[in-house]
């Protein structure tokens, strides 16, 4: 049986890589490799996963320097020379080994007003949004984000500016901006138009290239730039109430 040489990050930010030898199997994923290490070689290895089938995004890690879903990444695609390096996601605090603290990531969703704010109550009839309406189509193109953090880890601007809201939070703001039912867009645009918001994006497109859901956060951010500029010219941002 052939084997795979695997370097796995251990510890926190100041940790180090540890090497393991893992059996090479057919149709083997990187998540399979990590699971083998934890179950058979070192039970103290910390990592995170849930569904194993590309639905939850919780198994995202850095594989050979690139953020990926490990459950959908086959060893045959990444193991050049029979070697693989596995590390936690970039730009997030490391709890231990391959587990990152996602709090900063989701805190930025909150700062971008990523929560739906409707104007109807349970006594009102359901809002009806035509599927073919322009806003609905724009929202549909970006709404499948599951918050895995791959785009955030791949973003160069986050590396340079830790305050930058990041592609996932801005993509979420764009979907809500195009939701005809939402009532919080004025404050939302004010929140994403600052120095750490959409205008900080350098359009490197790393987020779009790495998104496992084939979304285009770069396009969403460009839409926010246009919407924020239009709102500013209308004088709607200067007195917007932000939370």
Topology:
Blueprint: E1 3-10, E2 16-23, H1 30-41, E3 60-63, E4 66-69, H2 75-78, E5 83-87, E6 94-96, E7 99-100, H3 103-111, H4 134-140, H5 150-154, H6 156-160, H7 167-177, H8 185-192, H9 206-210, H10 217-233
Helix pairs in contact: 3-7, 4-7, 7-8, 7-10, 8-10
Shape: elongated
Determine the fraction of residues in helical runs and give it as a percent range.
Answer: 25-40%
How far from one another are the termini? 59 Å
Structure classification:
alpha+beta
Secondary-structure element series: EEHEEHEEEHHHHHHHH
How is the CATH topology of the largest domain named? Fumarate Reductase Iron-sulfur Protein, Chain B, domain 2
Q: Give me the number of helical elements.
A: 10
Assembly context of the chains: single chain
The average pLDDT is: 94
- Beta strand count: 7
Using the coordinates above, name the CATH class of the largest domain.
Mainly Alpha
């Amino acid at each position: 049986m052939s084997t795979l040489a695997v370097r796995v990050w251990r510890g926190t930010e100041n940790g180090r890589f540890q090497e393991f030898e893992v059996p090479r199997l057919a149709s083997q994923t990187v998540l399979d490799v990590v699971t083998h290490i934890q179950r058979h070689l070192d039970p103290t290895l910390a990592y995170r996963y849930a569904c194993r089938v590309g639905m939850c995004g919780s198994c995202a890690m850095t594989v050979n320097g690139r953020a990926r879903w490990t459950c959908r990444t086959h060893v045959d695609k990444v193991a050049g020379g029979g070697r693989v390096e596995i590390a936690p996601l970039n730009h997030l605090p490391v709890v231990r080994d391959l587990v990152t603290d996602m709090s900063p990531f989701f805190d930025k969703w909150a700062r971008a007003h990523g929560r739906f704010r409707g104007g109807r109550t349970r006594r009102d009839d359901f809002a009806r949004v035509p599927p073919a309406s322009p806003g609905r189509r724009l929202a549909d193109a970006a709404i499948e984000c599951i918050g895995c953090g791959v785009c955030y880890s791949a973003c160069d601007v986050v590396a340079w500016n830790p305050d930058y809201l990041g592609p996932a939070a801005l993509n979420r703001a764009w979907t809500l901006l195009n939701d005809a039912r939402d009532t919080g867009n004025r404050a939302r645009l004010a929140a994403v138009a600052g120095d750490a918001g959409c205008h900080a994006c350098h359009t490197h497109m790393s987020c779009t290239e790495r998104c496992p859901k084939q979304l285009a956060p770069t396009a969403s951010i460009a839409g926010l730039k246009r919407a924020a500029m239009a709102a500013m010219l209308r004088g709607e941002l200067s007195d917007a109430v932000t939370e």
